Amino acid sequence: MVGSGAELDFTKGRDLITSPAMEPFLLGADQLRARAGGKWTKYAADVIPAFVADMDFKVAPAVQAAIEQFTHTQDYGYGQMTDPSSVPLFDAFAAWMARRHNWQPDPTLTHANTDVIQGLVATMVAFTAPGDGIIVQTPIYPPFLRYVVATGRRLVENPLVDDGTRFVVDLEGLERAAPQATMILLCNPHNPTGRVLERTELEGIAAIAAAHNLTIVSDEIHADLVYPGRKHIPMETIEAAAERTVTLTSATKGFNIAGLRTSIAHFGSSGLKEKFDSVVPERLLGGPSRFGVAATIAAWCDADDWLDAVMLYLDGNRRRVAEWAAQAELAHYMPEATYLAWMNCRHLDVKEGLTPQQHMLENAKVALSDGVDFGEPGHGHVRLNFATSAEILEEILGRLGSALG
Ligand SMILES: Cc1ncc(COP(=O)(O)O)c(C=O)c1O
């Protein structure tokens, strides 16, 4: 096994992972198709799925052991009643954030949810009123758009700007949008562009939010999937933002356990938590299961090496996708984080009425995410999930290449 993140040599990317011992997480297409999860069962057997953000990898041994502990002993009853001043899940969260992200969250200002989007919806309901404006940076993970509308709030879009090398936050646009809103939703690292926001961007957002009294909700679920050269900065570590920010996160993306439904909401001040608790009745939101809690604690306490090895592998894949996209003449910026590649296919010659995603599904038999779901700037784009084995990735790229004509 590899050592801690600091010792890794990312310049060698996937070449470092040569022996079977270094590839304990890879799964073949037959193994993946034999499982019951949504990714490999949604489409017919001749389609390779590269859409939903699950990795085609086994989980960390520590996570698997935590789950097997339950199944071996058939231990499916209620959990232990915990002392609210020391909840193991919250302590593991705080220790992980301190170790990996240089942030010291207060475990007592934490709330456990089943998933991050549940936290997003609950905070929108707690901190805004029907009809309020909520700012999002489009293109954006589709539930951000869907649930602003579903909760009767008003979408205020502040599209990211393509500066010729990457997508950046439009701070001037944000300044103009702020008077129309009471909340800003951040997604950092950003899905689908893979951007990791820089300190200057975060400080700019924080200053505007403070000037206009906006609550900030920062979805940082992809924080553990940052590549070398970039560093995730939690919004709550930005002084001007901390007191007005709710951070939503989980171990589910980094450790590939989304089906276990466990996430964290952390409140940047006791005032925010009190407000949340006063509006959202204690048992209205379902909590995580014992499986999810145990797996998340194992991930955050005992699986650093596994994550580091996976990141080395993904780094090789993201480079390969970028090289392929350049050859295929698809506009694409290599992601700074996430295993998602956002590609502009607007110049593709596709059949009238079809999106590039539909064209690829029909002609390449590869299921990508459709850019239209990510808001207006997503039109003509696709999102490719490259968290799979090099072998499956080559098959995907080969098929896409043939369908490009
Ligand atoms: C930015 C972002 N937030 C939230 C989620 C979903 O998280 P959950 O299943 O915990 O709601 C995803 C899943 O891909 C995501 O990319």
Describe the structure.
This protein is of the alpha/beta class and 405 residues long. The chain has two domains: 5-60 and 304-404, Aspartate Aminotransferase, domain 1 (Alpha-Beta Complex); 76-302, Type I PLP-dependent aspartate aminotransferase-like (Major domain) (Aspartate Aminotransferase, domain 2), CATH 3.40.640. The chain has 14 helices and 15 strands. It has helices spanning 29-33, 61-73, 88-101, 116-127, 142-150, 171-177, 199-211, 239-242, 252-255, 270-279, 290-302, 304-327, 356-363, 390-404; strands at 48-49, 110-113, 133-136, 154-157, 161-162, 167-168, 183-187, 215-219, 245-249, 263-267, 331-332, 340-344, 366-367, 369-370, 381-385. The strands form four sheets. It has a seven-stranded mixed β-sheet with strand order 2-10-9-8-7-3-4, with helices on both faces. Strands 11-12-15-14 form a four-stranded antiparallel β-sheet, with helices on one face. Helix 5 links the parallel strand 3 and strand 4. Helix 4 (116-127) runs parallel beside helix 5 and helix 4 crosses helix 10. The radius of gyration is 21 Å and the shape is globular. The protein starts with 28 loop residues before the first helix and ends with a helix. Mean pLDDT is 93; it is low at 1-7. The structure holds pyridoxal-5'-phosphate.
